[in-house]
Specification:
With about 450 residues, this protein is α+β, with helices and mostly antiparallel strands. Among the domains are: about 90 residues, Thrombin, subunit H (Beta Barrel); about 100 residues, PDZ domain (Pdz3 Domain, Roll); about 100 residues, Pdz3 Domain (Roll). It is built from nine helices and 27 strands. It is flat and about 80 Å long.
Length: about 450
């Protein structure tokens, strides 16, 4: 018994020693800090945020951490720079600190669909040779300590800082995911993560929620380590500049779905093998044209089984549809009233969003109007037969404001001229400008009601 206890004590001492070796010393933290700090930069940006209900856009200035990953000025920043209904403009990268700071204009290159980072390129008239980091892929273990380098807040002049955390869990499905134990400071998002052996293994991040456009691997709300394997290919071969907000290459089905959870399956008398329940079919969409109905259960798409039972899994179906290809006709296996049915669906192009809508600003009335895009129709429950333009912005003190118009009002006619599009609005204002009436009756829709606004233009 004494030998057994002695062996147990030796094992405990050895485990303690191993754990101690895994922890950071002050000297190690200082070395990691000194090594990566030259590659830490500030990303300054203006974000255009569009309200999908009204199409109104506001601008917000901000700053976040950037990590220089190539000497030629390739920078990684957090993916929250570009989310649903918000796009970054006027990007700048501030490199160095103290009296050696230098600012470069930057452009957004690419935002991967499965990891919440964005790649930027610093611009310069001469070749750049900036300090940068190099990643060493290493697996992490539960309980393993990691050092995170990030920027402190504005009250501390955005000075770099180092924070120690631990891996709280390692998830294996649908891919390896390293979860951190503590909440992340905003200034640590996309900051370098170093293990106790001094290897730069990845960056810190938080996945986007589904509402913000999160994709297949969403684990929103929990701090993570994005391992280098997820993004190294973009560093080795930098992506070309792209418009990340255009949907021209994205296919569209035109349905809203929810997972077939076991309790739903039991209620409907279906096998508990998962699927997607169609809750809404968008009018005049590819799904509607193929005869898909609300209540149908999607069991397979283009020969690929759909066995989803979790809310987050629905995003995999969205990504599958978008990547299938515009114009492609594919089979879709359904259950309707418990009976199997196969339909052929020809995918369309993802409709333009409020961000991409045509817009016109009228100086006489003092308002801006936008076309009514598909996402605005769905958000505001605007029927397909409603044709008009939506007021995006009303200028303070303008004719429109005095007439009590506001963003979100749908203009249907200006005087005797029907308005079904931006072109109609422009043409009507041109004709009214020739006649210069003292008063103008504007027929409009506010919510479910229609009525008139009485305006007195200042021609």
């Amino acid at each position: 018994m004494r030998n057994k206890n002695f062996l147990s004590l030796l094992a405990a001492v050895a485990a303690f020693a191993a754990a101690a070796q895994d922890d950071f010393t002050v000297q190690a933290l200082q070395g990691d800090y000194d090594r990566v700090i030259p590659a830490i930069c500030q990303v300054l940006f203006t974000q255009e945020v569009t309200d999908p209900r009204t199409g109104e856009t506001v601008r917000r200035n901000g700053t976040c951490l950037g990590l220089i990953v190539r000497a030629d000025g390739l920078v990684m920043a957090q993916g929250h720079l570009s989310v649903e209904n918000a796009i970054p403009v006027d990007l700048r990268v501030k490199v160095g600190r103290g009296g050696a700071e230098k600012e470069y204009p930057a452009v957004a290159l690419h935002k991967p669909g499965d990891v919440n980072v964005m790649f930027l390129q610093a611009q310069s008239d001469t070749p750049l040779n900036l300090p940068h980091v190099t990643f060493t892929p290493q697996p992490l273990r539960v309980g393993e300590p990691v050092a995170l380098v990030g920027l402190t807040g504005e009250t501390l002049d955005f000075e770099p800082g180092v924070f120690v955390d631990r891996v709280a869990a390692v998830l294996t499905q649908p891919r390896t995911t390293y979860c951190l134990a503590n909440n992340l400071r905003f200034g640590c998002l996309t900051g370098p993560v170093v293990n106790a052996r001094g290897n730069l293994v990845g960056v810190a991040g938080v996945d986007l929620s589904r509402a913000d456009g999160g994709e297949l691997y969403t684990r929103s709300g929990h701090p993570l380590v994005y391992q280098a394997e997820l993004f190294q290919k973009y560093i080795d071969t930098p992506p070309e500049r792209e418009d990340t907000h255009k949907a021209e290459d994205n296919a569209w089905l035109g349905v809203f779905t929810q997972p077939l959870k076991d309790d739903y399956a039991e209620y409907w008398g279906l096998e508990k093998t998962g699927g997607l329940v169609v809750s809404t079919v968008v009018p005049n969409s590819p799904a509607a044209n193929a005869g898909v109905q609300a209540g149908d259960v999607i069991k397979a798409f283009d020969g690929k089984p759909q066995r989803f039972t979790q809310d987050r899994d629905v995003l995999a179906f969205t990504k599958l549809v978008r990547d299938t290809g515009t114009g492609k006709t594919v089979p879709m296996d359904l259950l309707r009233d418990g009976k199997p049915l196969t339909v052929q669906v020809t995918l369309g192009t993802l409709p333009r969003s409020a961000q991409e809508a045509d817009e016109f600003e009228d100086a006489v009335l003092g308002l801006s109007v936008r076309e009514i895009t598909r996402d605005v129709r769905i958000t505001l429950n605007i029927a397909e037969d409603v044709r008009g333009v939506i007021v995006r912005k009303v200028k303070s003190g303008s004719v429109a404001q005095v007439g009590k118009m506001r963003p979100g009002v749908i203009l249907l006619a200006l005087g005797d001229y029907p308005v079904a599009s931006i072109a109609d609005f422009e043409a009507a204002m041109a004709k009214l400008g020739e006649a210069k009436p003292a008063e103008l009756a504007v027929f409009a829709r506010v919510g479910p009601q229609t009525g008139f606004f009485r305006l007195k233009p200042k021609w």
